[in-house]
Write a structure and sequence with these properties.
558 residues; VTC domain-containing protein; 20 helices; membrane; globular; transmembrane helix; alpha+beta; 44% helix; VTC_sf; transmembrane
Length: 558
């Protein structure tokens, strides 16, 4: 096993070197292009850039190679440890309670960081199981095998195509499998078993996407009340955001996650939380305006899951509840009852019915859990809706980025995410026709910011960071950004006129450390923020400065 692990480590180092080779050569070629333009007084730079994109050495999918490496490391660990949840698809929980640390990283170090992470934590790709990744891996091997075969003997492919045409014309569908040996006759014996893709079509290969696009809409008012409470870290400071995953083409049924983030200070003994529920896009604007009846909406969901009618039947049959009491129980959950004794009875309803017509009824445990979830969602939705209306909150900031996640399928004690291609958009408009700005709307240059660095977030259920994570952060010279927030960064850069306090990383102008042509933040805008307060708490300023590390001193990461 140690020998295999060493070989995988070597493969990982090769991936790092390939990525370095690609970027280094592209950079050198572009510099030569600039030099040529300057000497000859012409412009070939744009042509050269487009030409590089088509070059084979620039078209290597490094991200997928890291996913396959992660899969191989997982296979190695599976042979050592018994694992029961190999094909389990991870589903994000509705409530998160974990400590979080964020670090800023140069783009050139991202591949190195990912390669080192997958040795300890596998990729967590939403909607894909290990078998899906394995099918992608096998398909890649097959493609490479046939590509090598074609290079050695180009006539083989021609013969294969001729035989397939004959089969399609002369052989009936029932006998196709019997005639597949004709194809194997023209193929070397060592790959004939992998040859017929027609037979493997039953294994549908899902597209492999190493990262997922995440877009979030943050809410605040003209006085930036939420921003001020969050940056000053008031106890119970809350932030509302609406989030969706992947593209949003305006589909009315697109799932929008309505989230509330709540900050708790350490002295309270409580952990900061993130709670959320799902709302279809067609209901979002009504929800924002207070025109959506929350209880009716979720009760309709309950009815769709065939729970409402069944629960009415059981409550009326077993406990003789009146119709009005049944409706209140369904609306408010198990807390409403005639007595504490009846409340205990409701939680222990026996759903094991002798009637064969009730085969589709959900089990007692699942029904109880779903009912509790509905009740919790109703309360959360009402609280968020009330907060939006009471504080006159409206969409003010949009963030969009690609996220790569690393976590065990059956254990969320350690979770690492890396965000790249981070863009920030001014979401505020005076007259709002839609709940958010549409993709076809024109943007002014000063309404969008693109960061030239990546963001690593490490979420732990304990306060002690594993040694292997600390080693990676030290080696890639990450900057420890204490309590870094994309929302606060966007507010400081896009809505400076609304705020009194700026984040410490804006004050330090960390963006300038990451030299890049993608940096579109005007330094003059940073200078204009110099008259803003960093914070009103001197102890907080000290803790921030102590946790913002210089690039040359990464060893002090805790």
């Amino acid at each position: 096993m140690e020998c295999i692990e060493k070989k995988l480590d070597i493969i990982g180092n090769d991936i790092i070197h390939i990525d370095f080779y690609i970027h280094k050569n592209c950079k050198i070629i572009m510099k030569l292009g600039f030099f040529f333009d300057k000497v000859m007084n012409i412009s070939i730079n744009q042509w050269l850039r487009l030409g590089l994109i088509r070059e084979k050495f620039c078209n290597i999918n490094i991200d997928n190679l890291i996913v396959y490496l992660s899969f191989l490391y997982s296979l190695l660990k599976d042979n050592i440890n018994v694992q029961d949840d190999k094909n389990k698809i991870w589903v994000p929980p509705d409530t998160f309670e974990r400590t979080s640390s964020k670090f800023l990283i140069r783009y050139k170090d991202i591949v190195y960081t990912k390669v080192k992470i997958v040795k300890h934590l596998p990729y967590l790709i939403f909607g894909l199981t290990n078998d899906d990744i394995e099918n992608n891996f096998k398909e890649l091997i097959e493609q490479e095998t046939f590509a090598d075969l074609h290079m050695e003997n180009p006539s083989v492919e021609k013969k294969i195509n001729e035989v397939c045409e004959k089969i399609n014309k002369k052989v009936s569908i029932q006998n196709i499998d019997d005639k597949m040996n004709d194809i194997s006759y023209y193929i070397p014996y060592n790959i004939s078993s992998d040859m017929p893709p027609k037979k493997k079509e039953k294994n549908i290969v899902k597209p492999l996407k190493e990262s997922q696009q995440i877009t979030s809409i943050y809410f605040d008012n003209k006085d930036a009340t939420c921003y001020s409470k969050r940056i000053l870290r008031y106890e119970n400071a809350q932030l509302i955001r609406f989030r969706w995953y992947n593209e949003n083409e305006g589909d009315k049924n697109k799932d929008i996650f309505i989230e509330r983030k709540t900050h708790h200070e350490e002295w309270t003994g409580e952990v900061s939380t993130k709670e959320r529920f799902v709302l279809e896009q067609k209901y979002v604007l009504k929800f924002m305006k207070g025109d959506l009846n929350i209880s009716d909406f979720f009760l309709k969901k309950l009815k769709k899951n065939n729970n409402k009618d069944y629960e009415k039947k059981e409550l009326s049959k077993d406990y003789n509840y009146k119709k009005e009491e049944i409706n209140k129980i369904l609306q408010h959950g198990c807390d409403y009852n005639k007595s504490s004794q009846n409340n205990n009875n409701i939680k222990n309803i026996n759903h094991n019915n002798n009637n064969n017509n009730n085969n589709n009824i959900i089990g007692e445990k699942n029904t109880s859990e779903y009912r509790k979830k509905i009740k919790k969602n109703i309360k959360l939705a009402k609280d968020i809706q009330m907060m939006i209306i009471k504080n006159k909150l409206e969409p003010i900031i949009r963030t969009s980025y690609l996220r790569s996640a690393f976590q065990l399928q059956n254990n969320n004690s350690v979770r690492i995410s890396i965000d790249t291609n981070v863009s920030m958009l001014n979401e505020y408009v005076r007259k709002r026709k839609n709940w958010c700005r549409l993709s076809e709307e024109a943007l002014r240059k000063n309404e969008i910011i693109r960061l030239n660095y990546g963001i690593i977030e490490i979420k732990l259920k304990t306060d002690n960071m594993p040694t292997w994570i600390t080693n990676i952060l030290n080696n890639n010279e990450s900057i420890n950004a204490y309590k870094y927030s994309k929302y606060q960064t966007a507010m400081a850069l896009l809505h400076a006129e609304k705020i009194k306090y700026i984040p410490i990383w804006i004050h330090q102008n960390i963006q300038s450390i990451f030299h890049s042509s993608n940096n579109n933040i005007d330094n003059n805008s940073i200078q204009k923020l110099s008259d803003k307060y960093i914070t009103n708490n001197s102890n907080h300023v000290l803790s921030l400065n102590n946790n913002i590390l210089n690039m040359s001193n990464p060893s002090s990461i805790k």
